[in-house]
Design a protein that fits this description.
Layout (H helix, E strand, L loop, with lengths): L5 E6 L24 H8 L4 E7 L8 H14 L4 E6 L10 H8 L4 E4 L15 H8 L7 E4 L6 H9 L6 E3 L15 H9 L4 E5 L13 H15 L4 E3 L12 H11 L5 H16 L2
């Protein structure tokens, strides 16, 4: 077990009595409240020093309410919530600027995640207005979390190329199809993505992309090793992805699995993975 305080760079919290999360309707395990006491219980002996609250894909009309709620949690219940990554309608292009500016007025908001994965149009991320919206983020010192599935990698590479000043972080190693043991073309596309120095990568619950009931560490190894080889230990960030990750493993198992996959690396690199890189990327 990791014996130093970590930063969990990807934590979801929700209260289904407060906000509407349509995607939960199809996932009974997740379709209930997951709040700070639940997270603390899930951590067990894990020492979590700081938390990045990740937007939970509530009804888009309620995204400001989600940010307000997360801010209240940080101010009144748990100051470990050092950063918030919010949804924002970046596809509106320049018209989204007032909303982005308002988010940046909240000192805890560190970035934006506008999920690409759920768009049926694989070229959504290449739409000119979306690119304009993403390009404005550096004006407010905000980052962008890239949430895609592996089918989006090719266009995501073109998207990143068009936004050289944006600080990107790839969520969940780009969600390769671990369940079917598909490595290519994900493997070569990840290598190409890592060549952009402004891109970091989150290593989260890889088991979530594998067979939830029957995954093994051997299933995950080639994917984790590719990330560590391409991004190194200077741009790879641990992320718990709780409670979504509980579909395949407990939070403690997820952390221990990532530690095992990084096995044998120097202690300084392990600290970068589980602490320093998140602190550096999100400026917390």
């Amino acid at each position: 077990m990791i014996d130093f305080p970590i930063i969990d760079a990807h934590v979801h919290l929700w209260d289904i009595q407060k906000l509407r999360y349509p995607w939960l309707d199809d996932i009974p395990l997740l379709n209930r409240n997951y709040q700070l006491p639940d997270y603390n219980a899930a951590c067990g002996p894990l020492q979590v020093e700081k938390i990045i609250f990740m937007q939970c894909e509530c009804d888009p009309a309620q995204y400001r309410d989600e940010v307000r709620w997360a801010t209240e949690l940080a101010e009144n219940e748990d100051p470990r919530i050092a950063g918030i990554v919010s949804w924002a309608p970046l596809e509106k292009g320049e018209a989204a600027r007032p909303e982005v500016e308002a988010l940046a007025g909240n000192k805890r908001v560190k970035g934006v995640r506008r999920i690409i994965q759920f768009e049926s149009d694989l070229e959504f991320c290449l739409r000119p207005d979306f690119i304009r919206g993403v390009r404005m983020l550096p004006d407010y010192d905000l980052t962008f979390d890239i949430c895609i599935a592996w089918q989006h990698n090719r266009n995501t590479l073109r998207f990143i190329e068009k936004c050289p000043d944006v600080r990107f972080i790839l969520d969940h190693i780009g969600k390769p199809d671990i369940k079917r043991h598909l490595l290519d073309p994900w493997r070569s596309e990840i290598k190409a993505m890592a060549e952009f120095p402004n891109v970091f990568c989150k290593v989260s619950s890889l088991a979530t992309e594998a067979d939830h009931q029957n995954w093994t560490i051997e299933d995950l190894k080639p994917y984790a090793y590719q990330i560590f080889e391409c991004f190194g230990f200077d741009r790879t960030v641990y992320a718990g992805d709780w409670p979504v990750s509980t579909q395949a493993a407990s939070l403690q198992v997820c952390a221990a699995t990532i530690e095992q996959l990084a096995g044998g690396c120097p202690a300084a690199d392990l600290k970068k993975l589980f602490h320093d890189n998140a602190e550096k990327f999100y400026k917390v």
